[in-house]
Specification:
This protein is mostly beta strands. The protein has no helices and 16 strands. A four-stranded antiparallel β-sheet has the order 3-4-5-6, with no helix packed on it. Strands 7-8-9-10 form a four-stranded antiparallel β-sheet, with no helix packed on it. The N and C termini lie far apart (35 Å). 38% of the residues are buried.
């Protein structure tokens, strides 16, 4: 079982009960988690690295489940709240393998934080999504993945790609956005 425990950052004491991320699958891994901008919610993304993943939305003070699990047909590799906290996004996809046929695919889906309903269409990415970032104003979404066209910018209002894909020689494993949102740094496992 994969569990997550919240701790008081001042005292180091546990807050609430442990959150059970994978009650029925002993090989689930927690891949990403993030707090909402107001620190009241915690979003988790997990999966078994084969064909199954989930997203959970938790009360950050009590550890109680408030949304989900939202099931996906691949490992959930990245989750993120928008800067305003009104939407969250999860990215998932197939395991990392260049030999898979058809080629591995990845996806990202925005959801309304209040209603938990999907917002717009599912975004198609190449390979499992490993990073999701919002610009500080929330107008632009950045996704990075493991294969093919490895990174892309999206207009949050239209959910259409912005510009050309940002190709890398290999899968993007890490990314960061500058505080002003003008620069995205990516790291991949290319030689």
């Amino acid at each position: 079982t994969t569990e997550l425990q919240l701790l008081d950052a001042v005292t180091g004491k546990p807050l609430g009960e442990r959150m059970n991320i994978s009650p029925s699958d002993p090989v689930y891994f927690l891949h990403d988690f993030n707090f909402s901008p107001d620190s009241t919610l915690l979003l988790t993304g997990s999966g078994n690295d084969i064909n199954s993943g989930t997203v959970h939305l938790w009360d950050a003070m009590t550890g109680e489940l408030v949304g989900g699990p939202f099931a996906h047909n691949g490992t959930v590799g990245a989750v993120e709240f928008s800067p305003g906290g009104d939407v969250f996004v999860a990215g998932w996809g197939d395991i990392i393998s260049r030999e898979m046929s058809p080629a591995p695919r990845g996806y990202a889906q925005l959801r309304d934080t209040a209603t938990l309903l999907p917002v717009g269409p599912v975004l198609e990415c190449d390979g499992r999504v490993t990073e999701i970032l919002f610009t500080p104003n929330g107008d632009t979404l950045f996704t990075a993945s493991t294969l093919g066209v490895n990174a892309r910018l999206w207009d949050v209002d239209t959910l259409q790609p912005i510009g050309e894909p940002l190709a890398h020689g290999a899968g993007v494993l890490a990314a960061a956005m500058s505080p002003n949102g003008d620069i995205v740094a990516t790291g991949c496992y290319d030689n």
